[in-house]
Amino acid sequence: MRRIVLSSAAFFLSCANLLAADVQVELSTSPKPKQAQSPKPQQQATPTQQATPARELPSYRPALLGTGPNSVINRIDTQDLIKKGQKDGSVMFCCSVRKNGEIANTWTYRVTPESTLLEQELVKRLDQAVFVPAVYNHQIVHVLFYGTVTFAVVNGKPRLRIFANQEAVELGRESDFVGPQPFVGRDSKFEGLHYPNDVVEASVSGLVELAMKVDVDGNLKELRVVSEDPPLVGFRRAAEEDFRVARFIPAFRDGKPAECSITLPVYYEP
Questions:
Q1: What distance separates the 2 farthest-apart alpha carbons in the chain?
Q2: For residue 1, is it within any domain?
Q3: Is residue 145 part of a domain?
Q4: pLDDT by residue (tens digit) across 39-84?
Q5: What's the rounded Cα separation, in Å, for the pair 16 and 63?
Q6: DSSP state of 264
Q7: 8 A C-beta contact, residue 36 and residue 43
Q8: What b-and-e string marks burial along 10-42, b requiring 16 or more CB atoms within 10 Å of the CB?
Q9: Are 60 and 218 in contact (CB under 8 A)?
Q10: Hey, what's the torsion of the CAs at 40, 41, 42, 43, to 10 degrees?
Q11: pLDDT tens digits along 159-204
Q12: Other CB atoms closer than 10 Å to residue 8's CB: what's the count?
């Protein structure tokens, strides 16, 4: 699947058909299925939960990688990455997770130098992956999942980890933290990302950093633009309009919903 930024129409079309902790995974070199670390009880859930009666679903649960054979963590071929010469690197990504746990769209950014192989492998495997779907107010919802993949070669063996956040401090600590995830549903006015076609004359990509505070119930309390690249061409306005009405699955720290202040990179492609 090509990496694209969701337009409003694309996001809603995919909707018709982003809990407990930071997802940290170290892959072994064994050919047996690899398990993601379980960040408190609900991570062991599977996409079949969409058939679970609403009263049995939690109040909140972010989209999660899961641990089954269709989890992206069990599909990335780390041995092949080593054979092809991938060195230490990282990739940030965002993907749209449908109500059935399948991925509608994916895009990547902030790829470290010489990490093209890791980026390509990630996009390929996300296209085939199934996540544990997100829950808001006891209902399964369509969300944006923000994650970071890190890869290293340690004593000749691959070490791959996937985190459900993009905060430098949290990544450095390898914290038990899942960042807030904006969702589409009756409790949210979020409609996806809108490329500012009305003001951007050339086909350029844009990246806006938004500083935001999200409370323990997923309400957006503060929002401001930290940076815009390129500046003064419409991306700042687009990001502010896209997120000012959003509601989130709240962040989770150590398995519990938590208030947080984060800086979220928002990437736009024509």
A1: 52
A2: no
A3: yes
A4: 343 343 444 444 556 668 999 999 999 988 999 999 999 999 999 9
A5: 18
A6: E
A7: yes
A8: bbeebbeebbbbbbbbbbeeeeeebebbebeeb
A9: yes
A10: 50
A11: 999 999 999 999 999 999 999 999 998 889 999 899 998 877 778 9
A12: 13
* Pairwise CA distance, residues 131 & 142, whole Å: 11
Return the structure tokens found at 115.
């990490």
With respect to residue 74, please indicate whether it lies within any of the assigned structural domains.
yes
Radius of gyration of the chain (CA): 18
- Cα of first residue to Cα of last residue in the chain, in angstroms, is 16
Domain annotation covers residue 3 = no
HEC per residue, 113-160 = CCCHHHHHHHHHHHCCCECECEEECCEEEEEEEEEEEEEEEECCEEEE
Total of domains in the chain: 1
Q: In terms of residue numbers, what domain contains 236? A: 8-268
What does the alpha-carbon distance between residue 176 and residue 52 come to, in Å, rounded to a whole number?
A: 27
Q: How would you class 189 by CB atoms within 10 Å of its CB: exposed for 0-12, middle for 13-18, buried for 19 or more?
A: exposed
Amino acid at site 160:
L
- In the sheet with 177-178, reading across from the earlier edge strand, the strands are 177-178, 251-253, 256-258
